[in-house]
């Protein structure tokens, strides 16, 4: 893909070719679309949150402890992801891969607690996606975020393999950088999830 | 599921369609095999990443869909011509108006526009291709297979029948059982992926790949329209994605987003649908405005009047288009304050649109007008679209809307805007850019016959429908009693529809005639154009520009021609090898997997759906591991191609 253009030395590696710049801008715009997607899911949740059809409501369901653990895991993973890009910009491949692996592990930890939370709701409390409009929208919103995290984990894994095979060059650096944008974006979405879904749900 | 449930049975019309489909497939396979064209098809078309070829494929698909949607329209008009008609039963009629609406908006208007954007935009800004050629191919193929999935519904499993708006709870499992509505959900979902990718692709292309010297305010108006449309696509389509996904969950996995049971909110569907749906209307109309701006300015032989106002009015329209969605359901009972807000925001759209209309008129004023086919479509657009706009303002008054709602007045209004806006525009664009696509000029005489049949037919068809609306004829009825007094106007309306059909046939004849006997465009600039696409040979060489043009102002090519006339010495062009992307079959294959996954979900055969999704994921992983730097067009080849031009 990458167009072989004269390298501009003052730019970071991931911005060093014209095609890379196009790809990164394209991904930012894609994140704009993702924002619209999550905004729609948030709106749906807020419309349906009070419609419990006799089933459990937010305040009976949510537990602060699991949610806090999830939050800390994901926010930390965003930080380590930032460290990975920092190492990449210093040209340290091993450091970058190390931090990426930490990021993935934290992501897996997040997923573990989220799935446990879902199982707790669905199996032990009988609160499934089919119970009420509120639960449908809860699982759709939180589940879509979880699905994104899952995809992100596999994506970063694939990119690590490519870096191991090809070393750090303009192409692989771009891929690491773009996946880091994605990862930070999921972190931002989670902050809204934590506030609008869990905190608001437990307070009201 | 038994076979007689899998295939649609019991309707003579359907059996005829079955036979036609089988014969067409046999015919295509025979022709390809007989002329040994399979390899050509694969290498030149199915795997291409060239924006011009992708554009042509978009347009061919769109014309096919125009035919399909047009046949649906004629069937409906046939049914409604006389009272108490039994040509179609209610179920069949419902299916036909659902597919007509869905196909015309999503599988005809949008792909036609995307096709024209693909052909024109990179050439207008002096670019080698779009920013992401591979994704561009993926856009087309996901659209194509999404459309295919939707279209097979009428012979396999049954068509959706809940209207193109698919309001809940009508579209839910209880009232619309069976695979029909699932086709709608999955077909739109798959083609929606393509629309989103296209939107991103064009934004990046226009922002980052313009020729040196082409500032934003020196861009051709069609490129501006594409940029603004693409932004709308990027922010509107995710809403549709979510809405469709949630309804799919409701229908297949028993959730309660829009259902009556489980405390769901059916109205939420209407909101989500129109939060996407109204911007969608402008996604279809803004590029049309862009086309008319190009055509009017070229054939009035004048610079576009009020360029800056044109740009800002499009920006204003795009912003307002996100704030008017409730006007589609004033009668749903959102309350006076809400209705009042959306009433006012809807009326406000008339202001920037009016600005544009006056700018076109002032461009025409004192112009030396050439009445080519493309220009005729643009001239007809102005008065007819104004009628659509004025009736739109009438509908926007919430209190009055209670009278117009759900009548033929509304039907006439939106056809007046969508046909006179979008369809006239794509026909104008087809005539205008045809030489750049194929190197031949569409026959003007046949073009004018098409024009008169279609435009007169349009007015004969839809003007009576305004009156029918006032007389109280509701939309979406499959028959009406004789004493309703609607018969005469319905007969007239059907005559108009037939005239439009004849116009379409002349368009097809024109394409065939031009293929064999068309006048070749040897200059590359048959219309004495103003923008950069006319500075290169026709048809455009696969690398587009041998030398990247230097832009010194608006209407760059016009300025270059002027400088030449003034005898300014031209430098001998210095050719350099041009970097090109490699072809790839993966977008095609990946879209087939999308199709398989969609088909599996339609019939709720989960193993099939999972196999399809795994195929999609494998294609994405393979793409990630692919490192292909493309290839270079050697200087020799460029020299040869460019020498052949003189």
From TrEMBL, chain A:
Molecular function terms, GO-annotated? cytochrome-c oxidase activity; oxidoreductase activity
The protein in question is named Quinol oxidase subunit 3
User: Matching InterPro entries, A to Z?
Assistant: Cyt_c/ubiquinol_Oxase_su3, Cyt_c_oxidase-like_su3, Cyt_c_oxidase_su3-like_sf, Cyt_c_oxidase_su3_a-hlx, QoxC, Ubiquinol_oxase_su3_dom
State the annotated membrane topology for this chain: Multi-pass membrane protein
What CDD domains does UniProt report for this protein, alphabetically? Ubiquinol_oxidase_III
Where does the Heme-copper oxidase subunit III family profile domain start and stop, copy by copy?
A: 1-202
Tell me where in or outside the cell this protein is found. Cell membrane
Q: Name one GO biological process term.
A: aerobic electron transport chain
Q: Catalyzes what?
A: 2 a quinol + O2 = 2 a quinone + 2 H2O
**Gene3D superfamilies, per the entry:** Cytochrome c oxidase, subunit III, four-helix bundle
Q: What class of enzyme is it?
A: oxidoreductase
Q: Any idea which UniProt keywords this protein has?
A: Cell membrane, Membrane, Oxidoreductase, Transmembrane, Transmembrane helix
From the broadest rank down, the organism's phylogenetic lineage runs: Bacteria, Bacillati, Bacillota, Bacilli, Bacillales
Q: What is its EC number?
A: 1.10.3.-
Functionally, this protein is described as follows: Catalyzes quinol oxidation with the concomitant reduction of oxygen to water.
Query: What's the family?
Result: Belongs to the cytochrome c oxidase subunit 3 family.
Q: Which NCBIfam families match?
A: QoxC
TrEMBL record, chain B:
Family in the record = Belongs to the heme-copper respiratory oxidase family.
The record's Gene Ontology biological-process terms are: electron transport coupled proton transport; oxidative phosphorylation; respiratory electron transport chain
Catalysed reaction, written as an equation: 2 a quinol + O2 = 2 a quinone + 2 H2O
State the needed cofactors, names only.
Cu cation; ferriheme a
Q: Which UniProt keywords apply?
A: Cell membrane, Copper, Electron transport, Heme, Hydrogen ion transport, Ion transport, Iron, Membrane, Metal-binding, Oxidoreductase, Respiratory chain, Transmembrane, Transmembrane helix, Transport
Which sequence ranges are marked TM in the entry?
12-35, 56-76, 96-121, 133-156, 183-204, 224-249, 269-292, 304-328, 340-362, 374-395, 407-430, 451-471, 491-513, 592-625
Its localization reads:
Cell membrane
Q: In which pathway does it act?
A: Energy metabolism; oxidative phosphorylation
What note does UniProt attach to the cofactor annotation? Answer: Binds a copper B center.
Its predominant location is membrane
Top enzyme category: oxidoreductase
Q: Which residues form a coiled coil?
A: none
Q: Which residues form the Cytochrome oxidase subunit I profile domain?
A: 36-552
EC number, as in UniProt = 1.10.3.-
What's an example of a GO molecular-function annotation for this chain?
A: copper ion binding
**Its membrane topology, per UniProt?**
Multi-pass membrane protein
Its job: Catalyzes quinol oxidation with the concomitant reduction of oxygen to water. Major component for energy conversion during vegetative growth.
Q: Which Pfam families match?
A: COX1
PANTHER family from the xrefs? CYTOCHROME BO(3) UBIQUINOL OXIDASE SUBUNIT 1, CYTOCHROME C OXIDASE SUBUNIT 1
PROSITE patterns documented for this protein: COX1, COX1_CUB
**Which named protein is this?**
Quinol oxidase subunit 1
* A GO CC annotation given for this chain: respiratory chain complex
């Amino acid at each position: 893909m990458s167009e072989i253009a004269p390298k501009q030395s003052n730019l970071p590696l991931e911005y060093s070719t014209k095609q890379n710049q196009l790809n990164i801008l394209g991904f930012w715009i894609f994140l704009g679309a993702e924002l619209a997607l999550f905004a729609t899911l948030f709106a749906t949740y807020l419309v349906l949150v009070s419609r419990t059809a006799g089933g459990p409501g937010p305040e009976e369901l949510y537990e602060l402890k699991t949610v806090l653990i999830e939050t800390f895991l994901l926010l930390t993973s965003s930080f380590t992801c930032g460290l990975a890009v920092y190492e990449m910009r210093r040209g340290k491949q091993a450091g970058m891969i190390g931090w990426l692996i930490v990021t993935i592990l934290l992501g897996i930890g997040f997923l573990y607690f989220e799935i446990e939370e879902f199982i707790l709701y669905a199996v032990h409390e009988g609160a499934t996606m089919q119970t009420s409009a509120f639960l449908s929208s809860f699982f759709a919103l939180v589940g879509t975020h979880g699905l994104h995290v899952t995809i992100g984990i596999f994506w970063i894994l694939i990119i690590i393999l490519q870096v191991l095979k090809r070393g750090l060059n303009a192409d692989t650096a771009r891929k690491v950088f773009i996946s880091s944008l994605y990862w930070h974006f999921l972190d931002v979405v989670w902050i809204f999830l934590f506030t609008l879904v869990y905190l608001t749900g437990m307070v009201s | 599921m038994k076979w007689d449930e899998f295939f649609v049975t019991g309707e003579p019309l359907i059996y005829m369609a079955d036979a036609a489909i089988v014969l067409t497939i046999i015919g295509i396979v025979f022709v390809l095999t007989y002329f040994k064209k399979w390899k050509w098809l694969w290498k030149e078309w199915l795997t291409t990443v060239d924006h011009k070829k992708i554009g042509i494929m978009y347009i061919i698909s769109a014309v096919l869909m125009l035919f399909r949607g047009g046949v649906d329209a004629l069937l409906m008009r046939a049914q409604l011509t006389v009272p108490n008609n039994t040509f179609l039963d209610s179920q069949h009629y419902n299916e036909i108006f659902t597919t007509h609406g869905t196909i015309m908006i999503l599988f005809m208007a949008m792909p036609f526009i995307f096709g024209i954007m693909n052909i024109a935009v990179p050439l207008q800004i002096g670019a080698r291709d779009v920013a992401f050629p591979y994704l561009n191919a993926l856009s087309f193929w996901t659209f194509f297979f999404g459309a295919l999935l939707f279209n097979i519904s009428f012979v396999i499993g049954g068509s959706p029948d809940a209207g193109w708006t698919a309001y809940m709870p009508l579209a839910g499992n209880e009232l619309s059982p069976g695979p029909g509505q699932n086709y709608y959900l999955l077909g739109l979902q798959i083609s929606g992926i393509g629309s989103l990718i296209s939107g991103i692709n064009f934004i990046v292309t226009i922002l980052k790949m313009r020729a040196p010297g082409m500032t934003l305010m020196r861009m051709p108006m069609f490129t501006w329209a594409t940029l603004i449309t693409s932004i709308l696509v990027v922010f509107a389509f995710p809403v549709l994605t979510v809405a469709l996904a949630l309804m799919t969950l409701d229908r297949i996995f028993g959730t309660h987003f829009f259902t009556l049971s489980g405390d769901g909110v059916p109205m939420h569907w209407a909101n989500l649908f129109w939060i996407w749906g109204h911007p969608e209307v402008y996604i279809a109309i803004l590029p049309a405005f862009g086309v008319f701006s190009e055509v009017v300015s070229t054939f009035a032989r004048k610079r576009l009047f009020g360029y800056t106002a044109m740009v800002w009015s499009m920006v204003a329209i795009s912003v307002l288009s996100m704030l008017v969605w409730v006007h589609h359901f004033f009668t749903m009972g959102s309350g006076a304050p809400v209705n009042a807000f959306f009433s006012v925001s809807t009326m406000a759209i008339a202001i920037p649109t009016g600005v544009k209309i006056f700018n076109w008129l002032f461009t025409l004023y004192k112009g030396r007008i050439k009445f080519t086919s493309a220009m005729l479509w643009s001239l007809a657009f102005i008065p007819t679209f104004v009628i659509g706009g004025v009736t739109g303002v009438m509908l926007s008054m919430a209190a009055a809307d209670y009278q117009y709602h759900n009548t033929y007045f509304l039907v006439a209004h939106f056809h007046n805007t969508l046909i006179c806006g979008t369809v006239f525009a794509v026909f104008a664009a087809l005539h205008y850019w045809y030489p750049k696509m194929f190197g031949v000029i569409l026959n003007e005489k046949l073009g004018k016959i098409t024009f008169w049949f279609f435009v007169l037919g349009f007015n004969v068809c839809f003007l009576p429908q305004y009156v029918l609306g006032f007389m109280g004829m509701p939309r979406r009825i499959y028959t009406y009693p004789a004493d309703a007094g609607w018969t005469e106007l319905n007969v007239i309306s059907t005559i108009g529809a037939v005239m439009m059909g004849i116009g379409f046939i002349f368009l097809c004849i024109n394409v065939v005639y031009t293929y064999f006997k068309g006048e070749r465009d040897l200059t590359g600039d048959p219309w004495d154009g103003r923008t950069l696409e006319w500075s290169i040979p026709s048809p455009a060489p696969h690398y587009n520009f041998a030398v990247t043009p230097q832009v010194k102002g608006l209407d760059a090519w016009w300025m270059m021609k002027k400088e030449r006339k003034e005898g300014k010495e031209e430098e001998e062009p210095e050719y350099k090898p041009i970097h090109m992307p490699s072809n790839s079959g993966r977008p095609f294959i990946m879209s087939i997997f999308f199709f398989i996954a969609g088909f599996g979900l339609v019939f709720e055969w989960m193993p099939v759906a999972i196999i399809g999704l795994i195929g999609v994921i494998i294609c994405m992983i393979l793409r990630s591991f692919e490192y292909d730097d493309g290839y270079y067009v050697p200087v020799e080849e460029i020299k040869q191609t460019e020498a052949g031009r003189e």
